[in-house]
Amino acid sequence: METPKTEQREVVIDIKGLYKSFDELKVLKGIDLTVFKSENIAVLGKSGSGKSILIKMLVGLLKPDKGEITVLGKQVSNLDRTELDALRRLIGFSFQSSALYDSMSVYENLAFPLTMNIKNLSKEEVDKAVEEALDAVGLKDRISQMPSDLSGGQRKRIGIARTLILKPQIMLYDEPTSGLDPMTSEEINELINEVQEKYNTSAIVITHDLTCAKNTCHRVAMLSEGKFLETGTFEEVFNTDDKQVKSFFNYNFIQNHE
């Protein structure tokens, strides 16, 4: 996936010297990462490498021990509760589990965050927003169904639609293709690209699926033992003699495509 060509590229996420430990366990050891407007970047790494911890710090759920995170011009650690809530409304989070409310219909799942965050909307405005978000993920005909009636891929799509309803500037995808068959994974990859193009979002994609990273992201960052080993295009990162990077590639890409 080609990096957007713009002369003056706006920075939407800027991470500098980030450290995070839990007691004696050092998870992040001084990482730096910049995400530009309209860019998708994949953060790759084995389970336990700190990918999810990074995401939680981006939205202020965890505080860094050291370092700075700036999102949309705001230094996250300095925000009070009201300011943090306002920032989070600009960030769409697509959970690995889709995180739908099983007791709510598809319509209710999408309407809930809208009515919670934007007061005094008319029924017609809510209906229109829900229909537009479902249309964006190709599931307008599922509006009355319950989550239990949906396939895994459909649940993922509805989860993404729910994040889109607030028109986020940044998307965070947590293992978007996890547990899906190859054909459905390809559909989700296409949807991630469609979201970026239609909504002009920037995104961080947390994944160990190298096909997803290659097909949806302009750059990838390889996280291992608390540090980024390599950052660049897919080809730049994996055209290397680094044994850790090559091992990750061989296990997650070559082996899974034999």
Per the principal axes of the C-alpha atoms, what is the gross shape? Answer: globular
Query: CATH first level of the largest domain: which class?
Result: Alpha Beta
CA-atom Rg in angstroms: 18 Å
Please work out how many helical segments DSSP would assign.
9
Q: Kindly state the number of beta strands.
A: 10
CATH superfamily of the largest domain: P-loop containing nucleotide triphosphate hydrolases
Mean pLDDT equals 88
Low-confidence stretches are 254-258
Sheet with the most strands, sense and barrel status: 6 strands, mixed
Portion of residues in beta strands equals: 15-25%
Please give the CATH architecture of the largest domain. Answer: 3-Layer(aba) Sandwich
- What CATH calls the topology of the largest domain is Rossmann fold
**Domains, number:** 2
Q: Give me the strand/helix succession.
A: EEEHEEHEHHHEHEHEEHH
Level of helix content?
25-40%
Physical arrangement of strands within the biggest beta sheet: 6-7-8-3-9-10
Give an account of the 3D structure:
Helices cover 38% and strands 25% of the residues. With 258 residues, it is α/β, with parallel strands linked by helices. It has 2 domains: 1-90 and 169-258, Rossmann fold (3-Layer(aba) Sandwich), CATH 3.40.50; 102-167, no CATH class. Helix 3 (106-117) packs across helix 4 and helix 3 packs parallel to helix 5 (152-164). The two termini are 23 Å apart. Mean pLDDT is 88; it is low at 254-258.
